[in-house]
Amino acid sequence: MVTTRNTREDIVAAAGRMFADKGYHGTSMRDLGGELGLLGSSLYSHIDSKEDLLVEVVDEGARLFLDASDRAMTGDGGAEQKLRALIAGHVDVVLDHLDVVRTYLNEARMLDESHRARVVSARDEYESRFRDVISQGVEEGVFRSDVDAKITSIFILSILNAIERWYRPDGGLDRTSLVEAIDRVATSGIQKPASRVPR
Amino acid sequence: MVTTRNTREDIVAAAGRMFADKGYHGTSMRDLGGELGLLGSSLYSHIDSKEDLLVEVVDEGARLFLDASDRAMTGDGGAEQKLRALIAGHVDVVLDHLDVVRTYLNEARMLDESHRARVVSARDEYESRFRDVISQGVEEGVFRSDVDAKITSIFILSILNAIERWYRPDGGLDRTSLVEAIDRVATSGIQKPASRVPR
DNA sequence: TCTTGACAAACGAACGTTCGTTTGTGGTAT
DNA sequence: ATACCACAAACGAACGTTCGTTTGTCAAGA
Prior knowledge:
Two copies of one chain form a homodimer.
Chain A: H1 8-22, H2 29-35, H3 50-73, H4 79-96, H5 98-107, H6 113-140, H7 149-166, H8 175-188
Chain B binds a DNA duplex (30 and 30 nucleotides) through loops.
C-alpha cells in the first residue's frame, strides 16, 4: 500500500480546514474522516473527542498571534514602528495560517465555558499589546492626544481580523501592500490635510 | 390561559436570536421551540423548513443595510457627509437589529448555493455605495488622491461589521460617540500631523 | 512479538420533519 | 346569550437519518 499513514497533526490540520469552511457544528466526524480518506470512527484511534480537535485548533490560533506579537514588541523602534510590526505580524499569521485563524476567530465561541474563558483571556492579552503601543505613541507625542487607545486598538484589530473574510492570495494585492494600506489608513486616515504652505 | 400565541414573526425573531448566539447548525428545532415555549414540531405549523428561517433572517439583514444606505445617500452633502451618513446608518442597523445582523454576517455562508449568491450580490451592492462615495471624495479633493477606494471601503466596513463582536450597549459608549470615533479614525487616522514650527 | 492505525459494525442520542389529533378562539347562526 | 363550527396553533408520537462515539478485529511495521 502506497498511501502514507495519517498522523494526529494531519487530523488537526484537516479539522482546522473543515471547521473554517463549514463551521464546527457543520462538520461531522464522517466528513472529517472522508477528507483524510478514513472512516469517521477511525479518527478515534488518534483523538478522544471532536471537541478536543476544536480546542487544539483554537489554542494554536491563540498561540500564533501571541507569539507574533512577542516578536513584534522586541524591536527597539518607537510606537509607530511597533504598531506597524504588530500589524505586519498579524497579517502574516492570518495569511500563513488561514484555516487556523478562521476557526480561531469564528468557532471559538462554540467551545464550552472553561475552554472559551481561556481563549478570551488570551485574546484580551493580545489586544492589550496593541492598546499599550497606541498609548505609548500618545505619550511619545507621535499619535494625537485625543486618540482613545482602547477603541482604536479595537478598530485596527477589526480591520486585521476581517482579512480572512475577503483576502484572496491570488487577488493581485500582495501582503506588503496590504500591510502598507492598513498602516496608512490607521495612521493617516483618508482625509487630505488642510493645505498649509502651498508652494 | 394567559399565554399569547406565537406568530410567524415571533418565530423568525427567535430564530435570529438563536442563530446569532449558537449558530445555525448549533441550533436545533427543539431548542428554538423551547425558546418560545413550544415543541420543535409545533414550529412547522408556521414554517416549512429550518432553512427557510435562515433565509428569512439573512434577507432581512441584507434589506436593512441596503435601506439604510439608500437613506444615507439621499443627503445633498459632499462625500465627507455622505460617508459619515453611511457609517451612522450602518451603526444604527447593527445596534438596533443586533441578532439579525449577527446572523446575516456570520451564518449566511451556511445557506445553499443559490440563496448565498443572492446575499453575496446584495453585499456587493452595499459595499459599492461606500466605494463610490470614497471615489467621489477623492475626485472632489477632500480625500487624498492616493486613497484606494476599494480597499478603504473594505477597511471601513471591517470596522463596522466587527461592532457586533465587541459592542455592549451598557458599556459606557453611546452610539453617537461610536460613530464619531469611527469617522475620525477613518478620516484622520491617529497620527499627529507633523508640526511645522517646533519650539 | 508488540504496537499502531484503520476498519466495520454497532450504539444510543439527537437531528429535521411528518402526521393524526387535540385545543383554544372568534365569527356566525340561532 | 348560546350553540355551533371552522380554523389555526400546538401537541406528542413516530419516522428515517445522521450524529459522536465505542468496540472488537485485523493487517502491517517496528
